[in-house]
Amino acid sequence: xxxSQIVPIDILQLSLAFGLILVSAGLARLMRIGLxxxxxxxxxxxxxxxxxxxxxxxLVFAVNSPFPVILMLFAMTLFSLQVAGGRIKKxxxxxxxxxxxxxxxxxxxxxxxxxxxVVGYTPWFDPRYLIPxxxxxIGNAMNGAALAAERLDSEIHDxxxxxxxxxxxxxxxxxxxxxxVRKAFGAALxxxxxxxxxxxxxxxxxxxTGQILSGTEPAVAVRYQIAIxxxxxxxxxxxxxxxxxxxxRKYFTKAHQLK
Amino acid sequence: xxxxxxxxxxxxxxCDRVTVIKRNENGESAxxxxxxxxFAPEGESTCIIGPSGSGKSTLVRxxxxxDDPSSxxxxxxxxxxxxxxxLLLRKRVAMVMQKPFxxxxxxxxxxxxxFIYRGAPLxxxxxxxxxxxxxxxxxxxxxxxxxxxxxxGGEQQRVNLARALTGEPELLLLDEPxxxxxxxxxxxxxxxxxxxxxxxxxxxxxxxxxxxxxxxxADKLVYLENGKVIETGETAGMLADPKTTExxxxxxxxxxxxx
Lengths: 259, 259
Hints:
The complex is a heterodimer of chains A (259) and B (259). With 259 residues, chain A is mainly α. Chain A folds into two domains: 1-62, no CATH class; 66-249, no CATH class. Chain A is built from ten helices and no strands. In chain A, helix 3 (66-87) crosses helix 4 (95-119), helix 4 packs antiparallel against helix 5 (127-158) and helix 5 runs parallel beside helix 10 (218-249). The longest helix of chain A has 32 residues, at 127-158. In chain A, 31% of the residues are buried. Chain B has a single domain, classed as 3-Layer(aba) Sandwich (Rossmann fold), CATH 3.40.50. In chain B, helix 3 (107-118) packs parallel to helix 5 (153-165). Chain B has a six-stranded mixed β-sheet with strand order 6-7-8-3-9-10, with helices on both faces. In chain B, strands 2-1-4-5 form a four-stranded antiparallel β-sheet, with helices on one face. The radius of gyration of chain B is 18 Å and the shape is globular. The longest helix of chain B is centred in the last third of the chain and has 16 residues, at 183-198. Chains A and B meet through helix 6 of A and helix 2 and helix 3 of B.
């Protein structure tokens, strides 16, 4: 069917698109906000990163083996960890160990559940499915992870009096940090929940629009989108939960003392 | 060690050559407590006094293991507390912190906290456990249904005291119990503390920079400066005839007499 063939974009067409960035930079210059250089630099960075990723995907797609796919997922996890770490100024003790293991367990679990049971494509490592799905899941879980870790740290610091009062009354470190833990988990989950509630009205999600552009029936694209939002929510919940449950302990000694 | 530091009969608590070294944010280590030895006799009240920054609060936090010393040992009735489960220790050694932290909810709910943490059945408003601590802290039973956070500073500190006593401790630690209160309220609370201290049923260790409070409540004084024990003795004797210039100068400071 003619419709299912997407129109390819060549270099000339891409240059026309680049004109749009020049318009934005021109406006930035006109308003004298001094951001035009940064804007251009950001766009160049984006172009280089995406070209590199595209090339890498091309290579991974060409090899019919799970190893490069797994390697790529691993690299994505490392990058997400680095981004989350860079975003947070005050890191919890053992930040990378706690957040890294939580992302691996939370995102890994959800990605494979989603790939094997929900979509059920073969082979299980098919990069056409696995990489974009994992990418969306990891990217969103990373935001939740950063929020959870950041909020847990600030809650434990702000609630020092509360926590030590509880410890004095014979609470374990778990009992003493109960409200801090609950607040942090809520903070991690709320943005995902709000986005979910607004999806379809305020924003048309990227995956769905992408699938529609490349010729997928909108009804199918919508179902994919619904399923992936469920998966993202679960990945955010599991990853934040793991971070908070492992993380709060790092603020205490074995003798239930706040460090 | 001085022979004077060694108690003749077994004291309630014996602090044997305790040193605390803390690392600040720049990674430099500072000696907060330097080779501190002292003891508190059973059934008496001992006041640890000294200027701010002398290490008083750091010292008192060691007795219920909110912190552990870098070296040295603390014995509760001859038993090294580093070998006692901190959760059990904190039932025997209660602590009232400087700033009363009130948990969300009623006064009764605050008094039930330690029972919740221990997994014990919750005492009702008319149970002997609750009536006993209300009596000790000179609180009326009418206060039980009020929201703890709506109380005045003085009332909160009394609830704080009553709450600390719910576990029927053998040793009560008071960290600057009146410093957050205005003078009349502080004096009023001091009278209550005097009654508790002189009952002889409870051993009390109080930290304060307020000599007047110490004078009214303590059997024994320990004067601390720059993390070292400078002078120790019976309250009346020490106040009448300071043996060291440091304590003499501290006594001469008008700050503690101001109303």
